[in-house]
Amino acid sequence: MSDCLFCKIINKEIPADVVYEDELVLAFKDINPVAPTHILIIPKKHIPTLADLQPEDAEVMGHIVLTAKELAAKQGLDENGYRLVSNCKDDGGQTVFHIHFHLVGGRYFAWPPG
Ligand code: 5GP
Ligand code: ZN
Questions:
Q1: What is the dihedral of CA 46, 84, 35, 112, to 10 degrees?
Q2: How confident is the model at residue 66, as a pLDDT?
């Protein structure tokens, strides 16, 4: 998708602070962090929202969750914990329409969010 911000980051057309990359996923620091650690983990495949997922996307989605676990451990978050969030469409608060997971940690997050 040529007009997608996160596809442009994947294609290195827009710079980002990349913390992990492999053939399926890219992880980079959020430009507007809400916690000491705030990393976005995205599939390299352009999928606009969680509502667009298909059965063949199971591998990459599982890989994203496992990548989040590894990155959280590298950031030293595995003992105190962290939050892994994906917002879907308007009511979910999604603003970039390329699926992404927010890995946030280093501070306490209340539930339900205030
Ligand atoms: P959403 O609101 O869709 O769940 O999350 C989008 C996230 O993308 C926000 O946390 C926002 O700060 C982040 N973001 C938006 N534009 C950019 C950008 O150009 N670079 C980076 N690294 N993050 C961005
Ligand atoms: Zn995209």
A1: 120
A2: 98
Can the peptide bond before residue 112 be classed as cis, meaning omega within 30 degrees of 0? yes
State if residue 92 touches ligand 1 by the CB under 6 angstroms criterion.
no
Question: pLDDT value at position 27?
Answer: 98
Question: Domains, the chain, ranges and CATH?
Answer: 5-105 (3.30.428.10)
Residues less than 5 Å from ion ligand 2, measured at CB: 1, 4, 6-7, 46, 98
* Mean pLDDT of all residues in 89-113: 97
Q: The pTM is what?
A: 0.98
Across the strands, what pairs with 20?
A: 27
Residues 80 and 108: their CA atoms lie apart, in Å, by 9
Residue 97 and residue 7 in contact, taking contact as beta carbons nearer than 8 Å: no
